[in-house]
Amino acid sequence: ITCLPAVVGAYETLGGGLLSDAKGSFYVNDKVMSWDVHAGKVVPMVPMVKLGEILNQEEEPIRCLYIYSSNPAITAPDQNLVRQGLAREDLYTVVHERFLTDTAKYADIVLPATSSVEADDIYNSYGHYTSAIGYKAIEPIGESKSNWDTIRLIAKAMGITDPFFDKTALDLIHDTLDGAVNVPAELKEKLLQGEPVEMPVPNNYKMTFKTASHKIEILNPILAEPLPRYVESHSDTVAKGEFALINAPDLRILDSSFNERVFDTSKPMMGAWLNPIDAERLGVVEGDLVRLYNEQGTLQMPVYLDEGISPKTVVSYGVWWQRYSSDPRNSINALTSSRLTDYAEGSTFYDVKVDITPL
Q1: CA distances (Å), 226 to each of 217, 221, 280, 315, in order?
Q2: What is the pLDDT of residue 13?
C-alpha cells in the first residue's frame, strides 16, 4: 500500500502520497514530556500487545501494574492470557478510570479520573494538522484527578525531586507551545485563546523519508526481505483457519470507549457477519449461534447475513465490553494473537483466521 503512490509518482505532488498518521508532524514539540529527557535510567520497554505474556512470565514477574487511558481486559490481544495475568493474587493493580470497565473489575484500587471538561489539555488531530487547547470548564468532581496530576503526585510520594513534577498541565501546555518553533506567534496566541488552529505547512514542504537516499525505497537491499511480497494469512496449529476474521469499527463506539453509554441498542452489537453462501454451507440462518475458535480461544456469537462480505470471511464490528457480549466468558480479543509483525514489533490484530461451527 505504501509503495503504490511511489509507483505512480504521487509523492512528488504536494498533498499526494500516503498519510498514515500526523502525530509526528514537524510542529509538535513532543520532547516536553519525552521519556528520553526525564527517565534518569534505562528500563525494559515491551510492546503493549505482549501484556498477557508479560503478566504470566515466571522469571522476574511483574508485581505492580498501573493502568490509565486503557482497558486491556477488553482491548488487548490473547484475552484469555491477559485476564489470567490480571487475576493473579500476587499482582497489585491500580486502575485510573472514570468508569467501571472490565479492567477496573480486576483492580486492587481504582483511582477516579477526570473527564476532559475537568482538566486543561492540548489536543492534536488524527490525520490532519489542527490543534487546540481545551481549558477545564469545571473543577474536578470529588477526588478525581487528571492523568498528569495523579502521576506527579505519585512521583512526589515516591520521593522523586525532579522539578518537572512541580509543573501543572498549563505549564506543560506553555512549554509545548514555546518549543514549537515552526508555529508563528499569532497562531500560538489563538491557541491560548482557545481557538482551534490549523498549523502551517511550509511552502517548500516536501515528503522526505528516513532512508539513506531520503527517497522511498521499494527495493531495500539492507533488509532481510528487500522487496515487498504477499504473505498468506497466519493460521495456527489447532484450527484449519477456514475463515479470515476482520474486526471492523462500529460507529457507536471507538475501540472500547463509549461502551459506558451506548445510546442506540436497536442494532446488533457483537455478531458474526457471513456471506449467505457460507451460512448455507454451515447450515445456519440469521440469528443462530455459532462458535468461532482458533489457538487463542473460543467465542460464541449470533450469525448475521451480508452479501457484501467476501466468502470465507467473517466480520465482527466493534470492541465491546463483556456485558454486551453474547458469550458469557469472552469478547472479540479472545481470538486475536499477541504475535508481532515481522518488522517494527507491530500488532497482528488483522491477520487472524478462525473456524466456525454451529451451536
Answers
A1: 9, 5, 43, 33
A2: 81
Cell 494538522 sits on residue: 129
Residues of the chain below pLDDT 70:
20-30, 35-41, 202-207, 237-239
| pLDDT of the residue at 126 | 75
Provide CATH 2.40.40.20 ranges for the chain. 243-358
Give the per-residue pLDDT at 241.
83
Boundaries of CATH 3.40.50.740 in the chain?
21-198
pLDDT for residue 180? 79
Predicted pLDDT of residue 12: 82
Within 8 A by CB and 6+ apart from 277, the residues are 311
Distance of CA 90 to the CA centre of its chain: 27
Q: Which residues pair with 355 in a beta bridge?
A: 293
Q: Which fold has domain 21-198?
A: Rossmann fold (3.40.50)
Rg over alpha carbons for the chain, rounded to the nearest Å, is 24
pLDDT tens digit string along 8-26? 999 888 778 887 665 555 5
CA distance linking residue 186 with residue 42, whole number of Å: 39
Q: Which amino acid is at 212?
A: A
Question: DSSP 3-state assignment of 171?
Answer: helix
Angstrom CA distances, 52 to 22, 26, 310, 335, stand at 30, 35, 32, 13
Q: What is the dihedral of CA 181, 185, 190, 192, to 10 degrees?
A: 70
| Residues 325/300, Cβ–Cβ less than 8 Å | no
Helix 147-157 and helix 169-178: axis angle, to 10°? 110
- Cβ-count burial of 225 within 10 angstroms (0-12 exposed, 13-18 middle, 19+ buried)? exposed
Cα–Cα distance, 90 to 57 (Å, whole number): 13
Nearest residue to 56 (alpha-carbon basis) of 21, 83, 25, 93: 83
CATH for 243-358?
Answer: 2.40.40.20
Which pLDDT score, from 0 to 100, does residue 237 have? Answer: 64
